[in-house]
Amino acid sequence: MENRYDAVIIGGGILGTFHSFHAMELGLKVCLVEKDNYAKGATTQNFGQVVPSGMNSKWQKFGRESLRIYKEIQSQFDISIRQNGSVYLASNEEEERLLVELRGINNGNDYASKMLTKKECLDKYPGLRKDYVKAGLYFPEEVTVEPRTMIHKLQEYLVTQKGLEIKFNFPVISCETDGEWVSVKSSNNEEVFGKKVIICNGSDFKNLYPEIFASSDLEVSKLQMMQTKPQENYSLKGSILTGWSIRRYEAFHECPSFAQIKANETEDSLQKKWGVHILFKQAVDGSIILGDSHQYADAANMEDLGYDLDMDIDNFMIAEAQKIFDLPTYQIQNRWYGMYSQCKNSDIFQKTIDNNIHIVTGIGGKGMTGSAGFSKKNIAKIFNRQKINL
Asked: How far apart are CA 7 and CA 291, in angstroms?
């Protein structure tokens, strides 16, 4: 019975790992399988911020539960969580109006935020240009993570402290059910059995169920990001989200003024063409992470996005960032892109096959912020456990 489990989770990214975590919290025997030698997909290639403030009301509930879970784990085991807060910086009166309206929404949701004057922003964030900022909205509960290391530390915690079994280098080639057990086989001739199997990885979904994948509404987004060289004698705390973030994030769609403000925007700008909004976050080595851009293609045609970095996009982002912060250096030491899948017409892709095989993927840019909270509710639903109010 050593290779039989209550749950077999396919995909070792943030979504699969937290599905494993919550299944174990219910007292279930769990095996997480990952096709590569370690997790290295979108979970490790994102910006590294946990910002429920940017989510709509439904997903903010998941994001806030994620914050609680992250902080609880961090209190027991270092997974790189740093609570330095997030701030949105308005560059004009329209964006300031959206901040005021969002603060009202969050007051109604009992989620802490604080309006900052121009002077308070300039005092709090060194190098911020006074000709850019007009006001800010600060969320003190929010955290940053180091995406290249966090998932590995989280899995180390689950293995050493919670007893999770992880099988790396386990490329799944089949999932077959006999009504009681689902057999999960790898290309290495390994086999595990699960009462329930949950597929949390888009590439495994595509390989196992190509027809369902082809008929899905999944699309892929390509995000370009950069890392400066370490900033000498310079400290920037938390996540810094700027005016274009205010005009982009889902939370602001619920603001009364949003539709009219968006209608006034120029449609043929490079910002719109490349889906750019400017973010800043300081890494542990003192460097600044800069982002990011968004280019889209149907998941079945993700090759259309190419495998190269577009230097025109990078140069545009640097030029725009320099209008916001005067950093000691804008020399770049690292450039990369991340790819994540999302749904065109829904929050996340979910489908059940033969009652016991559950596909859960396409969480998109909500992954780092929303996965921990969403997985808690989804695991309870799949295993028909007590209702979880989120």
From this structure: 37
